[in-house]
Amino acid sequence: MSKKVLLTFAGNTDPTRGQHDGPIIHICRYYKPEKIYLILTKEMEERDEAPYNIYEKAIKENLKDYNPEIIRIKTGIKDAHHFDVYFDTIYQTFEKIKKEEKDAEVYLNMTSGTSQITTNLLMYYIDSVDLKLIPIQVETFTGQSNKTEADNKTVDKYYAVEEEAICNLDNEENSKKRIVVPDLKKYSRILTKNQIEKLLEQYKYEAISELLKRDIFDKNLELNTLVNFAIERTNLKGLECNKKLNSLNNKDYNRLYHFTKDKNVTRIPSWYQIVDCFALANIKQKAEDISSYTLMLEPIIVKLYLSILKDIMKKNLDELFRKDSHGYKIELKRLEEDLKEMIKEDLKREYLKDDVYISAQTLASTIKYYLKKKKN
């Protein structure tokens, strides 16, 4: 079972408010996180200074037999109403959690603190991909905002922990649970959807795959499967790509399969493989990936020349060259002496290397040799 961690600021509604739990205690009541990262502004530091420690003592007084580890993060922040003063603290705290609490469920208190604090947490939540974050909102016991003067009394370090716990109605059996888990992913969906659309136009499937790790879409698994299929297609994995789509069992995707659903690679004609290479080269060109586009030209030409030798000149490629899992190789003992001489002449070499993969230049010389031989 995953470890539970709570990341929370302390606010004016903590530890308790109006004879009820404040957000921190209420979250602890129902989730019992083993560790609490308690972030304190300068004002809250003064309320929580030793030996008073009102937040920790209130948690343990209201929730008997619950003894979480509390990590206090004293920020020294005085201007709590400024948006940008929280970035470093929130970022560094999450980095600390990543190192110390790998794979933990991290609950975010989205209620305690100023609107600037909760907005900062929301922005981090939207952009996060490597933590299991669960936003938690705690409603007031009236279901309304804290507006009454009696309920808005601000606590200080002299907060009467034991007396307030006795008066806390949430400690009674059958008290109302006020936890809400808001669907904050809807904000992330809008941003991510726009990013994915732009990346699709550029054929940047790997980048899309990284965005989908946020797991924010209803059909996230299906989308991920389609993107992984596209990645393998652009890596010319051939029939191996089809395995990605088989699990979806969706007829709408039949036209996306590599050539056919046939599992026999030998049944895929060479012309289709050539078209596949051309399609990939076209993608590289549209994506302005000039270096990859240039590198794509060689395998396309090789496949064209092999097709000419096999399909037009009716040569048995397996007799002419030696084949392994990556392609055809030159085996000098299979080549006619005159052919070897022509290849050396065309390549301007004194000798040929054995057991090397064939190049477009080698195949061009081979085609020229058999055309010349046919005329004679």
TrEMBL record:
Signal peptide coordinates: none
Cited Pfam families: Cas_Csm6_CARF
InterPro entries xrefs: CRISPR-assoc_prot_Csm6, Csm6_CARF
Coiled coil location: none
Domain Csm6 CARF per the UniProt entry, residue ranges: 73-178
The protein, known as: Csm6 CARF domain-containing protein
Protein source organism: Fusobacterium periodonticum D10
